[in-house]
């Protein structure tokens, strides 16, 4: 089968690999019907994810059809359409039992697919702990609608949930890329008074204005003043930092009002400074870390009910055998790209 493979820092290649097989009773093999490229894949390519294993198939954002299941799998069966969770988790350890599935103590726990074990930018993928890692897609939900449920939309849902958004809040989201927009959509579920999204890229802000006209947009250099003018409390009640740029961490706490919640969702390339003397007296609550992606079933229910729709994010579609061109487009942000969907290879 064709599989897009991490060879070494700076190099991905499309190559032929054997189709995956069941190796544990809890495994499932899924035929990938649609996958996507994530910024985290670019982090692997450029060496920002030290735990990524050379030789693995990349890709952790996908939907497909179950082909085989191990003897211990109970929740899915061959023929089921499924969304694949970005995280591998056993469901039994202390962290899984408390919903902190990103910290699963299994050797393959957390972000494994497309990082430490073969992922889904391929024709088939083996999913460990399939009872936790696969969620059946409702009949009324298409592959396009479900594509982001297990990763970028799960991240946005988690970010909004931990941010404790209240009605009446002003919510600032730093980053208008796919994760920022998914965070924005999930923040809307909590009915805040106002959402402001900040990004330096005019094309991304234009995308937001075209699709979500009730959301206010601003560039970073004017963000602090703009947020203060559009909040009754001297700053945002909630800040979600999704950008991970050189200046976005500082901007996040600067734009927050005293006693606000600042949720750090971004993946940074280098350490950030926590300037405690400068922020003394703001009494901020910081929440940090990777997504606990255990809400896929609820996310799919919201999609089915029309409460979440991420299909506008899919701006381009490429077959797997043209994935190198898709990566080039995505990494260089050409042609107004937001997300690229990858379909099975053209024969």
TrEMBL record:
One example of the protein's molecular function in GO is: zinc ion binding
Residue intervals of the Alcohol dehydrogenase-like N-terminal domain: 25-131
**Gene3D superfamilies from the xrefs?**
Medium-chain alcohol dehydrogenases, catalytic domain, NAD(P)-binding Rossmann-like Domain
Which UniProt keywords are listed?
Metal-binding, Oxidoreductase, Zinc
Source domain of life is: Bacteria
Q: Does the keyword Zinc apply?
A: yes
What residue intervals traverse the membrane? Answer: none
Does this entry carry the keyword Ribonucleoprotein?
no
The record's comment on protein family reads: Belongs to the zinc-containing alcohol dehydrogenase family.
Q: What is this protein called?
A: Alcohol dehydrogenase
- Protein's organism: Agathobaculum butyriciproducens
């Amino acid at each position: 089968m064709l599989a897009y493979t991490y060879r070494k820092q700076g190099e991905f290649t499309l190559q032929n690999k054997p189709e995956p097989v069941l190796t544990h009773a809890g495994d499932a093999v899924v035929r990938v019907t649609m996958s996507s490229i994530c910024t985290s894949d670019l982090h692997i390519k450029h060496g920002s994810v030290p735990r990524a294993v050379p030789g693995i198939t990349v890709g952790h954002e996908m939907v497909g059809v179950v082909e085989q299941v191990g003897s211990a799998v109970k929740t899915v069966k061959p023929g089921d359409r499924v969304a694949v969770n970005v995280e591998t988790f056993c469901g039994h350890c202390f962290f899984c039992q408390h919903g902190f599935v990103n910290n699963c103590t299994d050797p393959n726990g957390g972000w494994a697919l497309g990082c430490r074990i073969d992922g889904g930018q391929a024709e088939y993928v083996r999913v460990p702990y399939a009872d936790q890692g696969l969620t059946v897609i409702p009949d009324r939900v298409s592959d396009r609608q479900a594509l982001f449920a297990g990763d970028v939309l799960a991240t946005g849902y988690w970010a909004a949930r931990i941010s404790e958004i209240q009605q009446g809040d002003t919510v600032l989201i730093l980053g208008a890329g796919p994760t920022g927009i998914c965070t924005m959509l999930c923040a809307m579920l909590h009915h805040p008074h106002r959402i402001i999204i900040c990004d330096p890229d005019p094309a991304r802000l234009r995308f937001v204005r075209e699709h979500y006209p009730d959301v206010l947009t601003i560039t970073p250099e004017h963000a602090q003043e703009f947020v203060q003018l559009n909040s009754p409390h001297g700053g945002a009640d909630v800040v979600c930092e999704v950008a991970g740029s050189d200046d976005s961490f500082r901007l996040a706490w600067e734009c927050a009002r005293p006693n606000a919640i600042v949720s750090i969702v971004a993946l940074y390339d280098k350490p950030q400074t926590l300037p405690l003397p400068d922020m003394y007296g703001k009494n901020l609550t910081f929440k940090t870390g990777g997504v606990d992606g255990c809400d896929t079933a609820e996310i799919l229910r919201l999609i089915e009910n029309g409460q979440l729709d991420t299909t506008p994010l899919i701006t381009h579609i490429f077959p797997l055998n043209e994935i190198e061109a898709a990566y080039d487009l995505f990494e260089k942000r050409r042609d107004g790209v937001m997300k690229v969907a990858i379909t099975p290879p053209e024969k």
